[in-house]
Amino acid sequence: MYDNNLDLYIDGKFTKGSSGLTQDVINPSKDSVLAALPLAKKPELDAALAAADKGFKAWRRVSAYERAKIMRKAADLLRSRTSEVARQLTLEQGKVLAESTLEVQMAADVIDWFADEGRRAYGRIIPARSDGVRNMVIMEPVGPVAAFSPWNFPVMQAVRKIAASLAAGCSIIIKCPEETPGSPLALVRCFHDAGLPPGVLNLVYGTPAEISEYLIPHPVIRKISFTGSVPVGKHLNALAASHMKRATMELGGHSPMLIFDDVDAEDVAKLTGALKWRNAGQVCISPTRFFVHEKVYDNFVAKFTDIAKNLKVGDGLEPTSKMGPLANARRINAIDAFVHDAQEKGAKVATGGKRIGNQGNFYEPTVLTDVPESARIMNEEPFGPVAVMLRFKDTDEVLTRANKLPYGLASYAFTHDARTATKVADALDHGMVSINHHGLALAELPFGGVKDSGFGHEGGIEGLMVYMQAKFVSHRS
Predict the structure, then answer these.
(1) Residue 141's beta-bridge partner residues?
(2) Is 284 an annotated catalytic residue?
(3) Torsion angle of alpha carbons 41, 42, 43, 44, nearest 10°?
(4) Exactly one of 44, 92, 99, 250 is catalytic; which is it?
(5) What pLDDT does residue 1 have?
(6) Catalytic residue, candidates 190, 284, 364, 380
(7) Confidence class of residue 2 from pLDDT cuts 50, 70 and 90?
(8) Which CATH number fits domain 255-442: 1.10.10.10, 3.40.50.300, 3.40.309.10, 3.90.180.10?
(9) How far apart are CA 338 and CA 384, in angstroms?
(10) Cα angle, residue 468 at apex, residues 467 and 470 outer, rounded to 5°
(11) What is the pLDDT of residues 432-441, one digit of tens each?
(12) Is 170 a catalytic residue?
């Protein structure tokens, strides 16, 4: 069953708001309406801002030790509700239930980790040049946060912003995605039921541009956190900068995967296939450009293509499904456009390349070969179930190709040669590099990109520090 009682959450209360405006929430597997989502307008945003201002003044005075207790209780509640939250997530986002379940479980880990890390947000003492002087650096919460999270990981992306804000002592207004509102609301209910004081956490839905352009310039807001596309991120960052607001931008990627000739090509195909088709490729760190050494290219592509051909695509609630639908109809049109453009420019479709059926947003796992550099998919983030196979011979040459794009989020490599691994790690111009495994996105690890993929981090100690500011105090006794 789907919990269709959807609300906003403002100042400790669940509310439909006063506008009366709603938006349908659609099941991407069946094209059916799940619920009507209430939308916030100016009165609700004003109420959320007032609540966040009040909540921050109270929450910052709560000790990190006591904040951690409430956060840990919320994490325990989320774990106890995993099955219902995961089902809600799958119904409105589409990913298979096993992936939704893992997302919810990892979200609880994020809360726990930040709860503990908040108790270790230490300042420091700087040796003075004069007797009787004490130079201190004190870490303080930056203030009320306006956060914006996406639909591809509606629980995980929201919890990273919420947990880090709360651990630092900040209050937060978070706008979660209108396509997938139920699971973030269930997450917020866990904090509410754990006893989080009113106003510290506020959840709104509505017209994205209206909400961001109202919240970001508002004097109550001191910090912005956004996860989403590069164009929107650049716009919001410019808006934040014009009002001197601190920002964290976790934007799109176009991840290269480098596969060298000293690995077992078929084994690597199994590992990288699991990474590529996760969430139907709707992952900012999903590998898209597979640079495969010419000596193992044929074996790798054959195995990878075979895995794609035999992948069971279907409703995320079906136990046999290994890949669900795309989250919305827009993605079907976008992926079709990428594939057709590549074909027109000479690319070959090794498998896939078409929509599946007429109901739901299902698309075949797609492998392209012989793709020219001029194809759109070589230069724009596809954000879907398409993998591009590319040959290489020389290490320096492939590193240049891998770094060519303005994206710089994540990159991957498989090699058993320690010197090659070190060279690759040093040379790849990306915020995250994972070698010989998929070692990204855990709670304790920094997650963030460079270049057009944004700046700042979520996760790790770095993910806490972006919600804090250093105050220097020099005191003479």
Answers:
(1) 468
(2) yes
(3) 50
(4) 250
(5) 79
(6) 284
(7) confident
(8) 3.40.309.10
(9) 10
(10) 155
(11) 999 999 999 9
(12) no
